[in-house]
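chain below, 128 aa
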Amino acid sequence: MSRSIVYTSKAPPPVGPYSQAVRSGNMLFVSGQIALDPENGELVINSFSEQCHRVLLNLEMILKEGGSSIQNVLKVTIYMKNIAQFHELNEIYSEYFYDSKPARACVEVSALPKGVAVEMDAIAEITS
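prediction:
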């Protein structure tokens, strides 16, 4: 089975020693994404809503570069600093995963990289 590193300038570069994603066979494993703007490298921290949208857009760009899409995501893991924002997260998440509804885990954590409020990773199938 072949293994390759996936990278796109349309998503922020990794903030540590890892890849944006790894493609193996027909599977794509996308690393945890935080609300970094790929254009300027700055954190999007104005609101929880804006952070969620930025994270999902980053995931979307990496999925596309890796030959997949939001519709082909099989599993998402969400890390939140405040589980009380779960309802708001679900509203935003539904805008992206409106009909594909992948398996998902959502956990509250004490801290995330760079002090962000949310991080998400994904596993997707490559159908192209």
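The first helix runs from residue 48 to 65. The mean pLDDT is 96.
thats it, cya
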